[in-house]
Amino acid sequence: MEALVILLIEFLLDPIILLFILLFNVLVCIIELIIELIFTPFLMKDNKTTSPAMTKNANKNPSNPEPPQKRINSSKMTNSVFFAKTVYALKWLRNLSLSLIILIISALFIINFALFEPTVKWILTRVEQKTGIELNAEQIKGNIFTGKISFHQFHVTRESPIKTSFKLDIADLSLDIDWLSLIFRPITIQTLFINQVTGNITQPDPQVNTNDHTEQADSESQIKTKRPFVINNLNVNKINITFTNNGNTPIPVSFDKIYTPKFRSDYAIFDLFFRSNITGSIDGHPILISTSEMDSGRITHWHIPDFPVAILANFVNKPPINWLKGGIINVEVKDKWQLNDQEANIEMDWHLQSQGLILEPPPDIPFIKRQLAFAITHYINSKNGDIDLRLRTVLNENQFKNAFSLDASGLWDALTQTITNSIINKIHLKGEFNNNVTGSKHF
């Protein structure tokens, strides 16, 4: 998305310059008119101040080195010269701005109707230099004056050992941008349509990153675009990609439809999971997110049936979820949020049902986590891996600001903590667990 914003700014820079020149030309005309209104009455008044009496007095005193009539003419001449120079300068500026307008309009017409595709490809090269993301398209169409651009067979690639790498092929991508919004904030894209996406996305294993790369890798936990943007209508069809996370086995991910009525760059994760309608699958297992409107907010329903927990553990690197090795889980989430002082508080009701759950904590975990693992494993084994949990978490929209993932937003932290507390309460070991923790502090 950052590359898309840079592309738009580069491509629509000329219309912005044209707008400023037009405004400058109007301003020059206004200033010229004001000066004429101010100085013309004074010049007319000077013409009228030469009276017969003044002329007669001047004739009676021939020894006067500078008669009144001469002083008046000198003053009038000074005003006239100043007025003439000012008007000349303003006319010169106006003519210059008009020449620039004609030049830019001519260039825009030539680019729009004759050189549109090569110009955009040149801009794509500049975007690659700025972002490190390779962009190219086999066919490009559009219109500068309407703000509509379309790409056919659009290819996006980035290879990095410390950042998320991807290679995506997009059959069709089209957008309609309000280019005047490039002057103001945020940039507004009226519609963005993406159709048929294939490729792969790879997130690096944090354990293979060196210390020098840690800070750069951690910076990916947040999305910070140089210019915020809003997409008023995001429509994506047919995504088929493979996703590799932390060096684990690649997982096929497919989405038939993603529709978001409002997608903001600084709240991308929030708008995607709490404003959208999504149908798709992960490794062939269906996922459904549906959203309906309510007063000043929305109601969202997540439905994930019969999902293998081993795949879930690949996505959520938080204990006890990443200790899960076998079994399936049914996930139902109903949440609602309403704007409160321009912020949304999200109340999420979780219903988790598992079958044949297998938990395998790593042997080298710290002592306190070992006590936690013992309590949770004991409870799961007593239920033969079949558990039923109903939980509630409350999040704030600000937690999702600039977040790159659900993990970065704090959702998984809140969920795992709630799951842990719920299990401990169910097996009535909360007091014993706290005693173990207290004892370990004195050890």
UniProtKB/TrEMBL annotation:
<keyword id="KW-0809">Transit peptide</keyword>
<feature type="compositionally biased region" description="Polar residues">
    <location>
        <begin position="53"/>
        <end position="63"/>
    </location>
</feature>
<keyword id="KW-0472">Membrane</keyword>
<feature type="region of interest" description="Disordered">
    <location>
        <begin position="53"/>
        <end position="73"/>
    </location>
</feature>
<feature type="transmembrane region" description="Helical">
    <location>
        <begin position="16"/>
        <end position="39"/>
    </location>
</feature>
<protein>
    <recommendedName>
        <fullName>Transmembrane protein</fullName>
    </recommendedName>
</protein>
<keyword id="KW-0812">Transmembrane</keyword>
<dbReference type="GO" id="GO:0007005">
    <property type="term" value="P:mitochondrion organization"/>
</dbReference>
<feature type="transmembrane region" description="Helical">
    <location>
        <begin position="96"/>
        <end position="116"/>
    </location>
</feature>
<dbReference type="InterPro" id="IPR012571">
    <property type="entry name" value="Mdm31/Mdm32"/>
</dbReference>
<dbReference type="GO" id="GO:0016020">
    <property type="term" value="C:membrane"/>
</dbReference>
<keyword id="KW-1133">Transmembrane helix</keyword>
<feature type="region of interest" description="Disordered">
    <location>
        <begin position="203"/>
        <end position="222"/>
    </location>
</feature>
